[in-house]
Amino acid sequence: MGEDLAFWWGYLTNGKHLQWYASFRFTIMAALFGGVLALTFGLLGAMALRSRFAVLRGIGTVYVSMVRGIPDVLFFLFFPLAFEQGVEWFVSMSVCGPDSTPNAGWPPCREANWLLSTPEYLTLACVSLGIIYGAFTANVINGAMRAVPRGQLEAARAFGMSDMQVLTRIHIRQMWIYALPGLSNVWMLLIKATSLLSLLQIADIVWWAGQLGSPNFLPQAGLVHGDWRWAYFIALFVFYILVTLLSERVFRRLTAWARRGMPVEA
Amino acid sequence: MDALLAIWSEIPRYGQPALFNLYFAIASLPIGFIFALGLALGRNSNNRVLRGLCSGYIYAFRGSPLFIQFFMFYSIMLALNPIWWRPMELSWLMMNPLFIGPLALVMNTAAYTAEILYGALRTVPRGELEAARAFGMSRTQVFRTVTWPNTIRIAWPAYTNEVVFLFHATALVYFTLPVINAQRDIMNTAQLMFERDYNAFLHFSVAAIWFLAISLLIFFIFGRIYERLMRHLPPDQVPARPRLRFRPKYIR
């Protein structure tokens, strides 16, 4: 029994497993920065939707409705590629000349090639998560802004506040209680989307689970273990459920905080 | 102009791949719906154990990514292959992406649909239920004449969203399961074409157009069904059916 425990402890703390545990930082960073960016894009998108100018309203509407018709994984793959190619195109304008190494396909010459590594991919992943879930957030915030009682805004205007003051002091502050249920939904979506990082060649928790669980054969020792991937993926399945559970708790707290002094029963 | 022509001429190439996405969606939706109905009724029942099991299932599958669920089901199938499927000579079916894909999608969509149906079951007007019981109807009769028609009418707009999202989720199948021969879905074809000439804007736009077109078709068909479900109401009292235009009430 003691030997077994020692074996499992040793197995679960070997170098590769420690690397697996360390790779959770990518998932957590993607969720946090992606969430902050999604909130930013969401506020901007909601402002565009509610703007006085028809062009801005049009842009906002297209931005908000695109996520309804097109899968998020397509955007998740497309934005980093498009950004990379845009930078390469920009660089190629100045770098590529008659004496540079020509290249079939893309980029136009070898010198303009931009090789991305994990930090760049992670940044781009955060931005694409922000853009995709910003569209959902914009919609939630737009609905919440409309739900703020008109009387509150009229009272603020009657006190002589300027449009900007009404927006920042009353409208946005009172909107949170109506937005929080929707924002909680979007956050859950975003957490689940962080499992896609391995599609952008980031060695994240999913990639490591696949690597660690594959049948392990060493020439000196023979077959160390068979196919254990199922155990690793069940572990990830449970991990994500626990994260959801934790997020729900946090959002319950946030709702209680946003509701203080507000005449709503949400 | 050239770019538009290039997009136009590439659209037909995705016709056959789109059939795979449609297959995954159509194969999993009916089974998922029946399973979901069972789950929703179980969650609404008075039996504590049944209620706990159903709630737990719904929570687990809504609270974890579909991407992980695909990997999980596939790896479990792989592990069971030498001990069960091969001796039973079922490997050809159990290890086939065309079976595992819908299997994982059924388990996933059942949880989301069950949540929608459960929400609808709870909002069936109490008065109608009491009236039906006062008429001396049996439990099955009450379910068939009062609970079910009300539930499906309340749940339909949200279910339309779920169907569209499930269709989008089929894009994940071939990121997780092996691609056999020419069995490629839309995203897989787009990636293959991209690796040939690195033209992300062309290939991904065409893939997006296909997804958008089929999503609009789903909204249209389900909208017509919704109109039919609501035909007893005068037209001005029918709540808006879901469209591409976003409404704040959505799930997933």
TrEMBL record, chain A:
Localization per record:
Cell membrane
Pfam families reported for this sequence:
BPD_transp_1
Q: A GO term (biological process) for this protein?
A: transmembrane transport
Q: Which residues form the ABC transmembrane type-1 domain?
A: 24-251
Gene3D superfamilies found in the cross-reference section: MetI-like
The alphabetical list of record keywords is:
Membrane, Transmembrane, Transmembrane helix, Transport
Task: Specify the domain of life of the species encoding this protein.
Answer: Bacteria
A single GO CC term for this protein reads:
plasma membrane
Give the transmembrane ranges: 20-49, 61-83, 121-141, 186-210, 230-251
Tell me which stretches of the chain form a coiled coil: none
Q: How does it sit in the membrane?
A: Multi-pass membrane protein
Q: Which family does it belong to?
A: Belongs to the binding-protein-dependent transport system permease family.
According to UniProt, the name of this protein is: ABC transporter permease subunit
- Could you tell me which species this protein originates from? Pelagibacterium lacus
From TrEMBL, chain B:
Keyword terms: Cell inner membrane, Cell membrane, Membrane, Transmembrane, Transmembrane helix, Transport
Compartments annotated for it: namely: Cell inner membrane; Cell membrane
Q: Which Pfam families match?
A: BPD_transp_1 (PF00528)
Q: Which residues form the signal peptide?
A: none
Q: Which domain of life is it from?
A: Bacteria
Q: Where is the ABC transmembrane type-1 domain?
A: 18-222
Q: How does it sit in the membrane?
A: Multi-pass membrane protein
Question: PROSITE patterns per the record?
Answer: ABC_TM1 (PS50928)
One of the entry's Gene Ontology molecular-function terms is:
transmembrane transporter activity
Q: Name one GO cellular component term.
A: ATP-binding cassette (ABC) transporter complex
What GO biological process terms are annotated to this protein in UniProt? amino acid transport
Q: Which residues form a coiled coil?
A: none
Q: Which InterPro entries match?
A: AA_ABC_transptr_permease_3TM (IPR010065), ArtM/GltK/GlnP/TcyL/YhdX-like (IPR043429), MetI-like (IPR000515), MetI-like_sf (IPR035906)
* Membrane spanning residue stretches: 20-42, 63-85, 97-118, 163-180, 200-222
Give the protein family. Belongs to the binding-protein-dependent transport system permease family. HisMQ subfamily.
Protein name, per record:
ABC transporter permease subunit
Species of origin reads Pelagibacterium lacus
